[in-house]
Specification:
Strand order of the largest sheet: 4-5-6-9-11-10
Largest sheet: 6 strands, mixed
Distance between the termini: 33 Å
Radius of gyration: 18 Å
Number of strands: 13
CATH superfamily: Metallo-dependent phosphatases
Helix content: 25-40%
Number of domains: 1
CATH architecture: 4-Layer Sandwich
Number of helices: 7
Oligomer: single chain
CATH class: Alpha Beta
Length: 278
C-alpha cells in the first residue's frame, strides 16, 4: 500500500534522525544548556468499538497539529480498540483499525512516535502493534541534547512494567546520563496525587515507587501519561508527572474536551497548552 510505504518511510527517517542525534548526548563532556523543542501529544483515539470507524474528531485533530507543525507527535496509547479474544475481537479487526488510523496520519509532516496502550494489544500480545507502528513496546530516542524514553506499562495487571523492561530502562538511563533533559512517555502514570496532597505511588501500578525512584535517581524531568479523567500536573522529588488524557467524541459535547496538547520544553521548563477542535 502506498500509505503504508509512506508511513514506513517517515518512521525510518525518524529512526535515522534519532540515530544521528544520539551523539549529542553521548559525546559531550558534561551536560549542556537545554534546547527548546516543541512536540504534540495525543492519545485515546480508539473508536467506540473494534468494528466502528474513527470519529471525525481524529482526522480533524491531526489536521490542526499538521498546521502547527511540531518537531514530532507522540501518540501515548490506545490508538485503536483492541482488548481480548473473549470479547470477540480478532486480529483482522485490529489490523483494519491500524490501517485506518495511519491513513488519517498519512499527510503529517511531523515525525510520528507511538506508545502502546492497553487497547493496542490483543490478549496482551504487542506483535500487531509493533508490525503496524514499526516500534517495539519500549524504546528511546534523542532530539538534540534531550533524551526521550517510551515505556510499556501494560505488562502487569492492571498496570506495571516487567523486570526485563526495568533492566533495559536502567541501562538506557545510565547511557543517557550526559543528556541535558530526560523525558518519559507511558500510558499509565506510576504516581498519583489524590486531592492535590502529597504525591504517592499509584496502588494500581505495580512497583510504581520503584519506578519513580529510578526516575529521580537519573534526573528524569518530565513524565507524560494518558490515564486519568482530566489533565493533571504534579511534582515529586523533582520529577514532574503530567497526566494528559484526550477525548475524541463522535460529535461536539457539552463541556470542553481536549483532543491534543502542544508542549514547548526547555530542560525543566515545560509549557503545556490544551487544544480542542471544537
Amino acid at each position: 500500500m502506498i500509505i503504508g510505504k509512506k508511513i514506513h518511510i517517515l518512521i525510518l527517517a525518524a529512526s535515522l534522525i534519532a540515530g544521528m542525534l544520539y551523539l549529542s548526548c553521548t559525546t559531550t563532556p558534561g551536560k549542556s544548556t537545554a534546547q527548546t523543542i516543541r512536540f504534540a501529544v495525543l492519545n485515546n483515539t480508539s473508536p467506540q468499538s473494534p468494528y466502528a470507524a474513527f470519529p471525525e474528531s481524529v482526522p480533524a485533530a491531526l489536521a490542526q497539529i499538521q498546521q502547527i507543525n511540531p518537531v514530532f507527535i507522540m501518540h501515548t496509547g490506545n490508538i485503536i480498540h483492541g482488548g481480548f479474544s473473549w470479547m470477540g475481537i480478532r486480529f483482522a479487526d485490529m489490523e483494519k483499525q491500524y490501517h485506518q488510523f495511519f491513513s488519517h496520519a498519512k499527510n503529517l509532516s511531523s515525525l510520528l512516535y507511538t506508545t502502546v496502550g492497553p487497547l493496542d494489544t490483543l490478549n496482551g500480545d504487542t506483535s500487531l502493534y509493533s508490525s503496524n507502528t514499526d516500534h517495539t513496546p519500549y524504546y528511546s530516542f534523542n532530539y538534540g541534547n534531550t533524551h526521550f524514553i517510551v515505556l510499556n506499562s501494560n505488562e502487569k495487571n492492571p498496570a506495571g512494567i516487567s523486570g526485563q523492561q526495568f533492566t533495559w530502562l536502567t541501562k538506557d538511563l545510565e547511557e543517557s546520563s550526559l543528556c541535558c533533559t530526560i523525558m518519559v512517555f507511558i500510558y499509565h502514570c506510576p504516581m498519583s496525587n489524590p486531592r492535590r496532597r502529597n504525591a504517592q505511588p499509584d496502588p494500581a501500578f505495580h512497583d510504581g515507587a520503584k519506578l519513580h525512584e529510578l526516575f529521580a535517581q537519573y534526573g528524569v524531568t518530565s513524565v507524560f501519561s494518558s490515564d486519568g479523567k482530566r489533565r493533571s500536573s504534579f511534582s515529586h522529588e523533582k520529577v514532574t508527572y503530567n497526566q494528559l488524557p484526550c477525548v475524541f467524541p463522535e460529535k461536539k459535547r457539552y463541556g470542553r474536551n481536549n483532543q491534543y496538547y502542544i508542549i514547548d520544553a526547555a530542560g525543566e521548563n515545560t509549557d503545556i497548552t490544551e487544544h480542542s477542535i471544537y
